[in-house]
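Pair request: fold both.
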Amino acid sequence: MKTWPTANLRDVLTPVQRAETPTPGIIYRQIGVKLWGEGAYEREPMDGSQTKYAQLFRAEAGDMIVNKIWARNGSVAVVPQALAGCFGSGEFPMFQPDRAQLEPRWMHWLTKTRGFWAKCDEKSRGTSGKNRIKPEQFLGVEIPLPPLPEQHRIVARIEELAAQIHEARTLRHQAAEEAEALLASRRRAVFGKAPEDDWIPLSDYVSSIVNGKSPATDGRPASADEWGVLKVGAVSFGVFDERENKALPISFNVPPSLEVRSGDFIMSRANTVELVGACALVRQARSKLMLSDKTFRFVFREPRKVLPEYLDQALKSPALREQIEIGASGTSPTMKNISKEKVLALRLPPHRLPEQRRIVTELDAFQAQVDALKNLQTETAAELDALLPAILDRAFKGEL
């Protein structure tokens, strides 16, 4: 490990205020700073008449910008070129680096480390105004400061490794997307592209559809011994997720008929265009979960002429998804609803039970491969997410 000299930020940063008086009729781009080293971003623009501040301050590329309130939580960043010319209030003090001593990209990566956040937190403690950090206190933060050529070398190495991590993450994501596309293609081959003359309505299989209630809730997930009502997220991604629920008040009397049980086939009646009509087979469910008013449950005709697993695959096929999205209505561009009547009128291929079983076996095998790949991607993503902090830790200890 190399031993580098250190410096206080006041030795390499100078406070800067490029003040402008907000003028009504002029639109100002606004800058903000995300938490935990996620960097600066552009907020919604505003008219000069919309601010309560007497002055705004212009940011330039390479500036350090600090959120007084949340610096202790990593809300510190270097302004990128794309955000040059944006404005912040006095709550976001800015500082110019002495480029003869400090490479802005060195600070960019340093602001993403837990050690830097901890130093900002230490400087914020005990100050007035709910632990806001004052500019003079921020300038008291100590940082490692190797010679400029060494800063350039370390930054280049960090960015080389960060690019490799990004590439690996992108490739994993692309692989999962390609697997999903392959599954959709296979469903299209099995169920066709559009309804044909001999396709039959869902009502031939389903006698009725029921939905639940949505009383006021506590807004938190229910514990194991509490009643919870399903959220739309319980079926949004095609697999039943019992964790997507909200705790019901003790005073609410849940009708027994609305409890979710293993074997139920449920569908979301309201969501975005892409997710309305999302469905899932409840293969296993904890007790004390209730259907919401946005959740349909199918009541099958007896004797059953359809396998729930087959119906699950059919309703996820492009041909059925197109029917669902066409049948969805609503004035909101982001939230659509589909009625029970429209669902019962959906048309499916007239596959008999033996053919349904064959289709389920084939598509379940494809689904298992996709799920395995997605699980691998999730595991890999967690490993990749841990890599960059480890690299930065080594870099600023002089071990890179």
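--- second member of the pair ---
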Amino acid sequence: MKRNLLSVTARKRLGQVVYHTFMILLSLIMIYPFVWSVLSSFKSSGQLYGGSPLDLLPKPATLDNYKRLFEVLPFGKFITNSIFLSVAMPMCMIAVASLTAYALTRLEFKGRNLLFMAFVATMMVPSHVTLIPNYKIVVDAKLANTYTALFLTSMFTGTNAFNIFFFRQYFLSIPKDLENAAIVDGCSRLGVFFRVVLPNAKPAIATTAILSFRSIWNAFLWPMIVINDYDKLTLTVGLKYLKEWEPNWAVLLAGASISIVPIVIVFLLFQKHFMSSAMNSGFGGK
């Protein structure tokens, strides 16, 4: 009996060792290209082109690639534009999505479920399918080459449909008794939303903030089509022009490394709420 217990314990430990070893190796394989890209941005052209892919450390490290990056194109302006859009647009998207989701969750009106299914259906339509109609609308409305076109398409197209779906499912997990108590105390419906619902939906807000920020920050095709003015270009579109102006891959890696930093910072800031939302995402029923 004692031997059997020991053998079971030994098997469990062996299984854990194998599992963790496999996961560590898999993590290293996934992280390696990212680490190589960042460290290669500090290498000279000779070391980058003549060195081995397994040679990670720059010898010696240099900032010439980053200096060249800001000399070729106005990358400071590109970064400013991307930060502005990636902060302002998610805020607008969250405001529209949360209000819409609350109406679909708590307000009783005819066709509510049908309207919700229509929102969900837009998630199934690839953005490339609506690219030409959206551009035609933007041109007819004389909004081409303006940030207004980017704001409107992000808030009122399929891009924001997931946020509406996510908020609705999360609001379903909030007890109605909290809202009813606030209404009895004389709180209006909007007051309930801002004072009761939103404070209890911080994990959902953090999750949509991270995902929306990442989506806007990495957006390429639509900003490239709509925006034509150099002073209004985003960082991702600027990297496309950098490839045409600068043949040195070390400089391109420097630009790509800068584009990664804001996403990492945003995730670290909202990590606590994001993980809480992942564990308690509110995908339960009514």
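Observation on the second member. The chain has two domains: 2-36, 74-279.
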